[in-house]
Amino acid sequence: MIHLSEDDSQQYIIPPKHTGKEPIDDFQTELLDFWSWGYSDLWCNTTRSVFAEYIVGKVLGLTQDARVEWQGFDFEYVGSKLIEVKASSPFQSWKQNKLYSPHFDIKLRQKSWIPKEGKDRAIERRVANCYVFCIFGYGAKHLSERGNYDVLRLSDWRFFVLSTSRLEEEIGKRGIKKSISASTLKDICGDPLGHKDLKVAIHEALGLKK
Fold first, then answer.
1. Is-above-0.85 flag for pTM?
2. If you write DSSP's letter for every residue of the chain in order, what string do you get?
């Protein structure tokens, strides 16, 4: 069952947070069976990126409600602060001949999708107040190491956190327009963080109390 907003002018669907035990009519199975079939490839870029969002949301206590697809930011935090999560990795699920250099898309968008309005809204600046860059397999030296990593093992993830103002300052100095590399983020931030240090770093980037 779906839930509709109470906005009289334009209703939109509020996604319910399922448990996985919901029955699939006529199949004598449950929603968990679909999830297992459709989303078990955690190495896939799209699924792995959603898992990166989950890590950040879990650290901040923001996973009580279901994830909203296609909005112009990933999380709304304390004081209406907005957070954007980006993910990358030297690894892919397909056959690789070499390690990839992790990069993150930071191109400034001209429009932001507003699910509650059902349309794009023109924007002149970045919507988020803070960016969290997540890297699965950070520090891998050889392709042969791929089998040693597990997406569900949080110690295999590393993070860089930047306020939007700092990000814009740094990419402006470097003439970066479209994407930023992990090596550049290390130059800016120093060594990446583990997930246990993520909340403090986000609070600092947003100017919140630790």
1. yes
2. --EE---SSS--EE-----S--EETTTTEEHHHHHHHHS--TTSHHHHHHHHHHHHHHHHT--SSPPPTT-SSSEEEGGGEEEEEEEE-S--SS--SS----EEE-PPPSEEEETTTTEEEE-SS-S-SEEEEEEETTT---GGGGGG--TT-GGGEEEEEEEHHHHHHHHHHHT--SEEEHHHHHHHH-SPBPGGGHHHHHHHHHT---
Q: Give the type of residue at 58.
A: K
Beta bridge partners of 14: 3
pLDDT in tens, the chain (210 residues): 545 555 544 566 778 899 999 999 999 999 999 999 999 999 999 999 999 999 999 999 999 999 988 778 899 999 899 999 999 999 988 889 999 999 999 988 766 666 666 666 666 678 899 999 999 999 999 999 999 999 999 999 999 999 999 999 999 999 998 999 999 999 999 999 999 999 999 999 999 976
Copy the structure tokens of residue 107: 């191109």
